[in-house]
Amino acid sequence: MPANPSLSVVVPVLNETEIILESLSRLDTVLASLTGGFDIIVVDDGSTDDTVEKVEQWIDAHPQVRLLSLSRNFGHQSAITAGMTVAKGDFVAIIDADLQDPPELLPDMVTQAQRGYDVVYGVRRSRDSKWYKRTAYWCYYRLLRVVSEQVIPVDAGDFSVMSSRVVAELNKLAERGRFVRSLRTWVGFKQIGFPYDRPARAGGAPSYGIKRLFQLAATGVLASSRLPLKLAVYLGLGVSALGFLWALKILLARLVFNTAPQGFSATMLAILILGGAQLVAIGVVGYYLGRVLDQVEGRPNFIISRTVNLPDTKK
Ligand code: UDP
Ligand code: MG
Q: Domain for residue 275, yes or no?
């Protein structure tokens, strides 16, 4: 690693007209202190407002800023993925445009990386958001930790600084339905958390509603774990065992006490419980099958429609 490493900053952006310029100017001010130089890659994830026009105007006066526009909205994770494929710095940072990841932390994160860490990831010490969202996030990260095959750090998002070799490895992964923070853990190398307090959005509205947050949460579990499949097996075994015990009870009643169980409710109960368990298990398999289908179809994670200041990329 050179003594003065350069930094590429990837900023995924969807309809951030209210804050994009503030965000770029704060990044500019902070990054100017880096002696190795920097560039900023704004990934426009299908914005429909005037975010792109604002970025282009900014680029006129700031040649170190680049624009990569995707052909439609592919989602935050795909936008990050796209940005990483064109990031050429010795280190690559991922940061949200809404200033929830404070740009001012980047120089310290780079310094930390220079001490020999390939990944320095932000860990949210606190969050400025509603209590129910905080609780949901808290539970989710711990659940993810329990189910995932690698130890995914809790409360760590995509905000990070990575070495170019980690980015090169991530770029090699052809996985669809990406959950970047889990892949980032998977590639290994030396990684360390960087605690920070996560402020509220500086302006505009989050584009991820409850539905998309749940989708992202499900992607996270499916991409990091095969445990739900095993649980389906355990569920099946458990229900079968109960059924077996029940059958034994009926047999005993018949042989020893010469009585036969009667009743509609017992039958219904058995049918409902069994039916439910079967449907749940099929659903779990279905989710994984969906991922397999995505993978087999082999469509790209994103399509680039236009670039500015990115000479190496096909337009
Ligand atoms: N974003 C994106 N594509 C999307 C949704 C969001 O590129 O489909 C960007 C958004 O502009 C922001 C970052 O990803 O820079 C995080 O989005 P948001 O603030 O909505 O998510 P949250 O902070 O609630 O996780
Ligand atoms: Mg945000």
A: yes
Q: Which ligand sits closest to the CA of 14?
A: 1
Residues 6+ apart with CB under 8 A from 127: 133, 134, 137, 197, 198
Same domain as 255, residue 182? no
Q: What is the pLDDT of residue 183?
A: 92
With a cut of 70, list the residues of the chain below it in pLDDT.
261, 312-315
Amino acid at 255: L
Query: What is the domain range of residue 239?
Result: 227-297
Per-residue pLDDT, 212: 77
Structural domain contains residue 217: no
State whether 108 and 139 are in the same domain.
Answer: yes
Find out whether the beta carbon of 83 lies less than 6 Å from any atom of ligand 1: no
pTM over 0.85: no
Whether residues 162 and 96 fall in one domain: yes
Q: Is 81 exposed, middle or buried (0-12, 13-18, 19+ CB in 10 A)?
A: buried
Summary mean pLDDT of the chain: 89
Q: Tell me if 13 CB under 6 Å of ligand 1.
A: yes
Domain count, the chain: 2
Of 20, 98, 201, which is best to mutate to test ligand 1, by the most ligand atoms within 8 angstroms of its C-beta?
Answer: 98
Q: Which ligand 1 atom is at minimum distance from the Cα of 206? A: 20
pLDDT of residue 307: 94
Residues 129 and 240 in one domain: no
Has residue 182 been placed in a domain?
Answer: yes
Tell me, what's the pLDDT at 172?
96
Residue 47 lies in a domain: yes
Please tell me the distance from the alpha carbon of residue 61 to that of residue 59, in angstroms, as a whole number: 5
41, 78, 132, 207: residue to mutate for ligand 1 pocket, most atoms within 8 A of CB: 207
Q: What's the rounded Cα separation, in Å, for the pair 248 and 48?
A: 65
Residue 208: nearest ligand to its CA? Answer: 1
